[in-house]
Design brief:
With about 350 residues, the chain is of the alpha/beta class. It is built from 12 helices and 10 strands. The relative contact order is 0.08. Its EC number is 2.1.1.221.
């Protein structure tokens, strides 16, 4: 907190004293100039309001203290100046990001995976039911990128980061590899299981690789029930953080459709299953509207012209007002000189 005695008013007071002392030394009168009187007045006001400022600071502190107490009584946890978080109920479910595909990615995609992992960590920290987060096969380009860009990862809490493979860390019978190529569709989440997400950003260059990995290891595999609840314009392959966040949302809401539409980005063109007819009807209306596109373009051009004219008129008025102000200032200066 700044010392009031070192503020602008104190500096101006020192300047005032120096100027007064200089005048005394030169034998001049001690009559204060208009500028000096203003400085002195500001300094006096600053001193008079010192107690008021102190009282306001106390009131703000008391207000923040009462807010924290009220949140604590409601069962909330204070985690910063701006945000409160409800007390979390951790889930026993394990979510694993398998980072063993490092050699299949270029550096650009490794950086994308790093950002997705950061998002997973952040979302899990503030989730209503945080999962047991595992980051396995951690090394190579990914670890190097994290060391260079985000050295704070070594201090991450509530996450298990290891260079070992996930099937070496966890029991084989509790593993379920999540892959969109699996014929098995999840209906419920078993919180005694460890669900594995393939940590791969490959733009579909290595299609089916996570499914093949699960079969090679002889572990269970499944896909999220995306097709049962969502119709998408794009491919069904989701980013690592999207899968992670959907599972967190399901643990909180216990509703797959609500979980999907809470997380999926709009650019995926996701619509609820059963509403395709409405979507097709809207597309037909769009196609019919294309016939009037020329008329729409003409009307848009007219709107733009009107806006330009209005802007020019506004600029002209501002210039006129500025000119009048200049004239009035010149006239007042002439009167003062006279």
């Amino acid at each position: 907190m700044c010392d009031p005695d070192s503020g602008p008013a104190a500096i101006s007071d020192n300047v005032l004293k120096e100027e007064t002392n200089e005048k005394k030394a030169d034998g001049e009168t001690e009559t204060l100039s208009k500028r000096q009187r203003k400085r002195l007045l500001r300094h006096q006001q600053w001193e008079e309001q010192r107690d008021l400022r102190k009282q306001k600071r106390k009131e703000r502190k008391q207000k923040r203290r009462l807010e924290r107490q009220a949140q604590a009584e409601d069962g909330a946890e204070w985690i910063g100046k701006k945000r409160f978080r409800r007390e979390a109920e951790p889930s026993s479910l394990k979510l694993v990001v398998d980072c063993s595909f490092d050699n299949l990615m270029v550096l650009k995609d490794v950086k994308k995976l790093h950002k997705q992992i950061q998002r997973c960590y952040a979302e899990n920290r503030r989730a209503a039911h945080p999962v047991q987060f595992y980051l396995t096969s951690h090394g190579g380009q990914l670890k190097q990128n994290m060391d260079e860009i985000n050295k704070g990862w070594v201090n991450w809490k509530d996450v298990h980061i290891t260079a070992e493979h996930f099937h070496e860390v966890l029991k084989k019978e509790e593993l379920v590899y999540l892959t969109s190529d699996s014929p098995n569709v999840l209906q419920e989440l078993d919180e005694a299981k460890a669900y594995v997400i393939g940590g791969l950003v490959d733009h579909n260059h290595h299609k089916g690789i996570s499914f093949e990995r699960a079969k090679e290891l002889g572990i269970a595999h499944a896909q999220l029930p995306l097709g049962s609840f969502v119709k998408m314009n794009s491919r069904k392959v989701l980013a690592v953080n999207h899968v992670f966040e959907i599972i967190l949302a399901y643990l909180e809401k216990r509703d797959w459709q609500e979980a999907f539409f809470t997380v999926l980005p709009q650019r995926k063109g996701a619509t609820p299953v059963g509403q395709e007819g409405k979507l097709d009807q809207s597309e037909e209306e769009d196609e019919n509207g294309e016939q009037d596109s020329d008329g729409d373009l003409e009307s848009n051009e007219k709107v733009l012209e009107k806006r330009c004219d209005a802007q020019e008129q506004t600029d002209a008025k501002r210039r006129e007002q500025a000119a009048r102000l200049d004239k009035s200032e010149d006239a007042s200066k002439e009167q003062t000189v006279a």
